[in-house]
Task: structure prediction
Amino acid sequence: MFHKKHIYFSLIFLLIISLILAGVIWHSQNQKLKIIFFNVGQGDAIMISQGQNQILIDGGPSGQKEMEKLGKYIPFWDRKIEIVIATHPDQDHIGGLIDVMKNYKIGKVIDNSAESDSQVYKNYLEIIENKNIERLKGKEGMNIKIKDANLEIIYPGLILDPPAGGPKDTNSDSIVAKLIYGQNSFLFTGDFPLEKESALLIDKFDLISKVLKVSHHGSKNATSQEFLSKVSPFDAIISVGKNNSYGHPAGELLERLRAKKINILRTDEKGDIEYICKNLFSCQMAN
Ligand SMILES: [Zn+2]
Result:
C-alpha cells in the first residue's frame, strides 16, 4: 500500500517539475528576439517579436493565412500587436492586415500614406477609422524600439520624389526599414523598385545587413548589383508563392544573388523562415 502511494506521489512530483521546467524553457525562448518571414503565398508578411512585443511588417494577401500564422507564433493570451507597418497599399501586402486589425488590439499603424483606389485599400482605411487606430506616416529617420532592438525607417525620404512609374505606381514609395540588434541586421524593402534604388545608394545610408528581404518577391526590376554590393547580405529571403503567375523570382535576380554567393532562402520552398537571436552577436535560423 505504502509502496503504491509512494509511486503515485513521485509521479505527481515529476509532473509538476516537468511543467515548471517547460514553463521556464518556454519563457526564456519567448524572451529572445525573433524575426519570422511567414509563408503566405505570393505576398509579404514578416513578424519581429520579443516577449509580449510584436511588430508586423505587411500581412500577406489573405486574412485567413495571416491569422493562422499569428495564432501559431503569438501566445493566445497576447491579443495586442504593438506596431503594424504597411510598406505600401497593394493587396499582397495589406490584404491580410484587415483581419489582423479586426481581431487584435493594434498600438499604431505606420504606412507610406500612398493612396490606392482598390477595394482592399478602402477596407484598410475603414478598419483603421472604425477602430480608431493611431496612423502615422512612416518616413526617413523614424525609429521603432522593440526592447534592445531598433527598427529604423530609411525610406520614404523627408522630401518625396514623384513615383518612378507614374501616380499609380504603388511600389515606388515602399517603406524600407533596417532592424539592428547588436551585431545583427535585417533590411526590409517591401516592393521597392530598381529605378528608385539610387536614392538609397548614397553615403548617408548604412544599408549593410546580414539578412536582406529581397524586394518585390524576387522581381528582376529590383535589387540591382549595386544595391546588393551596398547591402552585402549573407542571406537573401524571397517571399514568394509557389508557381505564381508573375514568374517570381526572376532567373536574372537569382543569378545576381548567386554571383555574390548569397544564400537564397525562399518561402515557397522552406515555408516560414525564422531567425532566433541568441544574443547581440548571433541570430540563427531555426529551421
Ligand atoms: Zn508585393
